[in-house]
Amino acid sequence: MAETDIKMVYAFPEEFVCNSVTVPAVRYRAITGQTANIQENYGTDGNLVNAVGPLGQQTYRRPIISATVVGSAYQLLASQSGSICLNDRAAGIVWTLPLAQVGLEFTFHTTVTVTSNSYKVITAAGTELLVGAINNVDTDTSSAVAIWQSLAATSNIAVTQQAAGTNATGGIAGSTLVFTCLSSTRWAVNGMTLAGGTVATPFATS
């Protein structure tokens, strides 16, 4: 295919002002031709979000935030919504959610069993409460299942998977939790934890 067969189109549907200079907030690049039909979509940070290829095929990779990289505590940002947060630090981590904004969502995958402290996710304010249910699988009693719930009337603001008690509240590799912001005072929680020992709810008020 000759170069003349390819057309590249840049579009800037939105703009924002940074240091008195107007720059594109969201943009895409379309590449079309006899055998090419690709659209690349970019986010506000300038990074590629996804690319739609021939026949509408799309590739998309969610951002990854690793506990082994960020350390024992990490404040998540609203701009990181959609990220996959890896519980991959045996010494544990405390993840703090950003201030509530409807539609924010974070997924937490445990890839390394916590052996000290805990894997904890907590809201940014005591008025931002958790609602939802977590399925628990007891790994040392023939995979017995328990369901832990957090009702609207409760004051739970955290999910803590502790190493104590042979991971009684979870934190064993394979656990997965999803937090979705529903309002200025509510986060929905759902997922599955793998636990051992005498299992107990991971929901907590602090």
Q: What does the secondary structure layout of this molecule look like, with pairings?
A:
Blueprint: E1 7-18, E2 21-32, E3 37-42, E4 48-52, E5 58-60, E6 64-66, H1 67-70, E7 73-75, E8 84-87, E9 93-96, E10 105-110, E11 118-122, E12 129-138, E13 144-150, E14 158-162, H2 164-167, E15 176-183, E16 186-195, E17 203-204
Parallel strand pairs: 6-8, 7-9, 8-10, 9-11, 12-16
Antiparallel strand pairs: 1-2, 2-3, 3-4, 4-5, 10-15, 11-14, 12-13, 14-17, 15-16
Mean pLDDT: 83
- pLDDT below 50 for ≥5 consecutive residues: which ranges? 1-36
Note the gap between the termini.
62 Å
Rg computed from alpha carbons, rounded to a whole number of angstroms: 21 Å
> Structural class, from helix and strand content?
mainly beta
Structural domains: how many = 2
Share of residues in strands:
over 45%
Strand neighbour order, sheet with most strands:
6-8-10-15-16-12-13
Largest sheet: 7 strands, mixed
- Percentage of residues in helical conformation: under 10%
Helix/strand order: EEEEEEHEEEEEEEEHEEE
From the spread of the alpha carbons, the general shape counts as globular
Number of helices: 2
How many DSSP E strands? 17
